[in-house]
Amino acid sequence: MSDDELFVPRAATPAARPVPAWAKKSPPKSKAAVRTAPKVAARKYLAPSDPHEHARKIAENVIDAWYQNFGGSSIDIPLGTVAALALLRNVPGLADWILNLQPHELPQFFKEIYLGYWIKRPDLINRALRLYDWAWNPDPDKQQLRAVHAVTHRAINTGLLDLTGHDDPYWRSESDVLSPLLTGLRHKSDKKWRGEYHTPACVTDLMARILVDKDFAGPDMAIREPAVGSGTMLRSVAQRLRDLQLNPHDYTWYGNDIDSLSAACAAVNTIIWDLGPRALIGCADSLAPEDDYAKTVEEAKDAFAQRDRYMDTASAIAASRRAFRLIDELTASKEKASA
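Predicted structure:
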């Protein structure tokens, strides 16, 4: 196996981040200005026993919420909203806390989620750019924010965190939430023009059971999908490996898709399903003469190098600030002693 196939990024130790500006509440000018917003609680959702049906129900509800609230034609926004929420672990009280965020607070919340994972896997988060770049808009459309707010409520109240928020990657890999959402949001003519038809999960699960066994799935095996879509085939193989008491982290994974939005969904799913440190997602034409895998490996290396540069710069800035604070404290103590 080549060095590229053994590519594993060096681990980063993230520095403690300050409390974001959006979380800092300004004191009211008077008691009369204080208005207590009503608390919203996540409702109990009787989820279907079939996780694939549950994922489909979530997609249907999200699509309905997006268009009922006039979200517009930018389907990357509801996709990115659900993708960000699916990256969270379902700790007690989290759903209620999210539901009580105001529409203008949600973009910063999603940025925090994506930035947290960027520190760990900048290659995959860079690939998912189309899902979250809207959150950096300094002047967001208020109507779209209301639609994002509605999507957030509908996804959580339809049990998204119950499906994707497990600590155990086996349970959060039971279905692909982003596949039915992506195909449902796209116009029928758009899907026909792109030739985009995702393989149903029941078919990919059957293929994985037929093709993968302990004799076939040897150590350090490479698993590649040239038309990955949102990654459903990779999910099925990973689950099959886990059923055989094998660890997906021991394998090299590579998925490629010509559509950047599909590749973005596959990148997020790669994190959700915990395919491991040797999982790469590319965006290129698999039928082109160029080597799309080599290109993806180079892009991943560049992403980790950029992450390391930013982290080194951030560490240097933090050290400088600590030094300046120490100087200020020493100066203040000398002035106090001489007074």
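Summary: The chain has one domain: 52-296.
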